DNA sequence: CATGGATCGTTCGGTACCAAAAGATCTCGC
DNA sequence: GCGAGATCTTTTGGTACCGAACGATCCATG
């Protein structure tokens, strides 16, 4: 069996990761990865940069849904839709899907859900009847205006420990990754 | 109507965002947000830092599923499970769920899918029959060893434009956010 | 022993989410 | 005008994914 077939039989000499993780444990986990796979031709810096994005996104999303959004029966996606319509005003579904990072087929179902709750409304475009524009209702406006400041407070809490410079640097680096990933 | 009730009626004087977005457009979009909501007491730096995490994660995930994982019929979650088992070896389902960032109920279903494809196998722990450990099969090992180098190449492509220092800085900042979000 | 509480994995009900196909409408060459 | 192709949204079929409820197993205390 060549080096590529190497496989860990036990966890000796590796960091114990039982229980909940803090920042130290994450670093330790990344060291373990390097110890396991260090003899291969891999780019570990890209690996950690990219995989930490998803890890952070999942953690932030799940906690937001539990602690901020659940009391209003909103999913992350539903909240995003309201937020985008609030900031940019009404728009057609193709643009809305792109802004929200959703497939347009996904958007259809979620709009139906939001429409049933009278938070948004659809309207067929007169000049091009293939298109549909979506807008907040007054209920939707009330909800997002009440909810968003609390959501922003949550975002502040999630970026605790980052300086102003670091927040801006984080946003900048993520913009670069995003434009790499959007074909 | 007070300032809080202000609502955009049209998109004049705002950046046109039709079509696909690049890094410039993202910055423009963030400027629009500030223009729309700038008179409120919100922390825009936290907002952009946090919301860009999710945007980047979604874009990276979707493209990976399409361009790297689809040819092996793997979802992002399924891939993550194989990867974690590869790096750390067999473990019980609770730890596996935590490492993968999945709810344990979700993991059950995905393990069943992977087990049906003979990529992983479950085994009841002798000393504590409540527990179940999960391990890669040899098919699973072959798959991840073939797939991971290509996945890593994808990660390199996604971090194009970032220097080594920036990749490490990105990983570091995201670790801070993640530990804020894991309660 | 016995039994109540803690700790596992799984099941359940429901939404989110995607890619691909279908259906509706517009546009442009002829 | 009129039919072919382009461009929209919705529908479809299937997986991922969550929280909560459930059932099995372990363990501490009397």
Structural class of chain A comes to mainly alpha
Q: Tell me the span between the first and last alpha carbons of chain A.
A: 40 Å
Number of helices of chain A: 7
Interface with most residues: A-B, 85 and 85 residues
Spans of at least 5 consecutive residues with low confidence of chain A: 1-14, 16-22
Counting DSSP E segments of at least 2 residues, the number of strands of chain A comes to: 3
Radius of gyration of chain A: 22 Å
- Binned, the helix content of chain A reads 55-70%
Instruction: Encode the helix/strand succession of chain A as letters.
Output: HHHEHHEEHH
Q: What is the subunit organization of this protein?
A: homodimer
Main sheet summary of chain A: 3 strands, antiparallel
Q: Estimate the strand proportion of chain A.
A: 5-15%
| Strands side by side in the biggest sheet of chain A | 1-3-2
* Silhouette of chain A: elongated
For the residues shown, what is the average pLDDT of chain A? 84
Commentary on this structure:
Two copies of one chain form a homodimer. Chain A has 183 residues and is mainly alpha-helical. Chain A is built from seven helices and three strands; from the N terminus they run H-H-H-E-H-H-E-E-H-H. Chain A has helices at 23-37, 44-69, 76-88, 93-100, 104-116, 138-158, 164-181, and strands at 91-92, 120-124, 132-136. Chain A has a three-stranded antiparallel β-sheet with strand order 1-3-2. In chain A, a hairpin with a 7-residue loop joins strand 2 and strand 3 (132-136). The longest helix of chain A is centred in the first third of the chain and has 26 residues, at 44-69. The radius of gyration of chain A is 22 Å and the shape is elongated. The model of chain A is unreliable at 1-14 and 16-22 (pLDDT under 50).
């Amino acid at each position: 069996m060549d080096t590529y077939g190497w496989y860990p039989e036990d966890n000796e000499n590796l960091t114990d990761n039982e229980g909940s993780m803090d920042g130290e444990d994450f670093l330790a986990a990344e060291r373990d990865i390097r110890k396991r796979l260090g003899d291969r031709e891999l780019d570990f810096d890209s690996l950690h940069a990219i995989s930490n994005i998803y890890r952070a996104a999942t953690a932030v999303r799940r906690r937001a849904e539990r602690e901020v959004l659940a009391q209003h029966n909103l999913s992350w996606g539903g909240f995003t839709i309201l937020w985008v319509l609030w900031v940019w005003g009404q728009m057609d579904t193709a643009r809305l899907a792109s802004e929200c990072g959703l497939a347009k087929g996904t958007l259809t179902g979620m709009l139906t859900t939001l429409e049933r709750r009278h938070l948004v409304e659809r309207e067929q475009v007169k000049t091009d009847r293939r298109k549909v524009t979506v807008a907040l209702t007054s209920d939707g406006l009330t909800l997002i205006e009440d909810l968003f400041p609390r959501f922003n407070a949550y975002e502040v809490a999630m970026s605790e420990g980052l300086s102003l410079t670091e927040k801006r640097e984080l946003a900048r680096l993520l913009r670069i990754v995003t434009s790499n990933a959007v074909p």
